[in-house]
Write a structure and sequence with these properties.
- This is HEXXH motif domain-containing protein.
- It is a single chain.
- The protein has helices at 3-21, 30-34, 38-67, 72-101, 106-127, 180-193, 195-207, 212-220, 222-235, 238-247, 251-255, 266-281, 286-296, 303-314, 316-325, 336-339, 347-357, 365-370, 372-385, 390-404; strands at 137-142, 148-150, 155-156, 161-162, 166-171.
- It is mainly alpha-helical.
- The protein has 2 domains: 3-101, no CATH class; 194-418, no CATH class.
- The strands form 2 sheets. Strands 1-5-2 form a 3-stranded mixed beta sheet, sandwiched between helices. The protein has a two-stranded antiparallel sheet with strand order 3-4.
- Helix 3 runs antiparallel to helix 4 (72-101), helix 6 packs across helix 9 and helix 9 runs parallel beside helix 12.
- It is globular.
- The model is unreliable at 409-418 (pLDDT under 50).
Length: 418
């Protein structure tokens, strides 16, 4: 068998493999595609089809080079490139297939559609007044401790096909306490507005007189701190408790600083969230969280790392001021608190919302459309304030979210800041 004959067989193999990818109903079940909002499914299918079409064109061009007698070494290099690009495309399709297939269970699909609506509301509340379009959202469920996001617009695969949606992973243990969703949408919002870079620069300047090392560290943590601010401003104090459950650990692990990791150490991050809540709401049950964490983790026994952590904790009031209350160019001279006032999700305001709504709190279509994030915050807070009846509160929250799926996208400017 000549090398050309061998190459013909290899090119035919990979061309057929590419062609097989075009049937997107083998990527995710038809029922799962149908469980998506129409515009989300259309965006995802269009993007994936574009990837496959590009691959098909490359495979056809490679076939033509074989047929017209191009040098075998040249065809071989093209073949290896095609194979590599195929595998990257396959990984991309598997990612979206797994995410979409998580909706084949009707109850879980309804829950995720509800979280799509809440995520869309949380982004539109900030982006719409700034004239920035909100991307479509696809939430999905997976194992692990922490949520994550593949941001819309991130260029995938061949750098020519941006991620078509904000794909947000929620973890199984937090499906009934999903305020991490608001941290992940914060990553999308703050990347689009330019807040992260501006916060990093402002933290560097504000903290440098205290310590250049502390200033450098907080600047490097700006994207995660900003996403935490986004969650707290939307939902008040429940995100701080949800975060603590995710990042908890022994003293060594909660003090660890990982080079290049944008996440602050768990102790610093948890107490930052408490400091942020306290700055807006005063004293409350979040102080018990802070007390428990400081009692569990004795910095005096942690050596140099304990000293650096203590310096970082001493800077938290400044970090809160800069991240939440300082005017920003990215917000047209407004502070984060001006753009999204966290006092809309204070315990007092949530109680007022509950009192006004009365028996219609969980049935009102108006509240579903206008206040989905604040209702989510209220229902999340119930389980924290009354852990003895946590199962009852969990069921009320998930039932309400399942009924939220498919609700119209909220009007610009409505949501947690109302």
């Amino acid at each position: 068998m000549t090398d050309t004959t061998q190459l013909r067989g290899e090119v035919a193999h990979w061309r057929l493999a590419v062609r097989a990818l075009a049937d997107l109903d083998t990527v995710a079940a038809p029922a799962a595609w149908e469980a998506l909002e129409h515009y989300v499914g259309r965006q995802v299918r269009s993007s994936l089809t574009g990837v496959i079409t590009s691959l098909e064109g490359e495979a056809a061009a490679l076939q033509a080079r074989v047929d017209t007698g191009h040098p075998p070494d040249e065809v071989r290099r093209g073949l290896l490139r095609l194979r590599s690009r195929y595998l990257r495309a396959e990984t991309l399709l598997d990612f979206y297939g797994d995410a979409i297939n998580s909706r084949t269970n009707p109850a879980l699909g309804a829950l995720l559609r509800g979280y799509d609506t809440i995520a869309a509301d949380s982004m539109a509340t900030i982006l719409s007044p700034l004239g920035i379009p909100s991307p479509p959202v696809l939430t999905y469920v997976d194992k692990g401790l922490g949520a994550s996001i593949l941001r819309a617009g991130i260029r995938l695969w061949d750098q020519s096909h941006p991620s078509p949606v904000a794909a947000i992973k929620l973890t199984r243990h937090n499906l009934s306490f999903p305020t991490a969703l608001l941290h992940e949408t914060g990553h999308q919002v703050l990347a689009l507005t330019g807040y992260n870079d501006e916060l990093a620069a402002r933290l560097g300047v504000a903290l440098a007189p205290r310590s250049t090392e502390v200033a450098r560290l907080f600047a490097s943590w700006a994207s995660e701190l900003g996403a935490d601010v986004h969650a707290v401003h939307h939902a008040g104090w429940p995100p701080a408790f949800a975060l603590a459950n995710v990042v908890d650990g022994d003293t060594r692990s909660v003090l660890r600083i990982r080079p290049g990791d944008p996440h602050p150490p768990a102790l610093v991050r948890t107490l930052f969230n408490v400091a942020l809540v306290r700055a807006w709401f005063g004293a409350g049950p979040w102080d018990d969280l802070a007390h428990a964490w400081t009692e569990r983790h004795d910095l005096r026994r942690a050596g140099a790392l304990g000293e650096l952590t203590a310096e970082s904790l001493a800077a938290l009031d400044t970090v809160v001021q800069v991240s939440s209350m300082t005017p920003m160019r990215c917000f047209r001279g407004a502070s984060f608190g001006d753009v999204l006032d966290p006092r809309g999700a204070s315990p007092e305001r949530l109680r007022e919302l509950e009192h006004r709504a009365g028996d219609t709190l969980l049935t009102s279509d108006y509240l579903k459309r206008r206040e989905p994030v604040r209702v989510l915050a209220l229902l999340s807070a119930r389980g924290l304030a009354d852990p003895a009846r946590a199962e009852t509160h969990r069921r009320a929250l998930t039932d309400w979210v399942q009924g939220l799926g498919g609700s119209p996208v909220p009007l610009p400017g409505t949501g947690a800041a109302a």
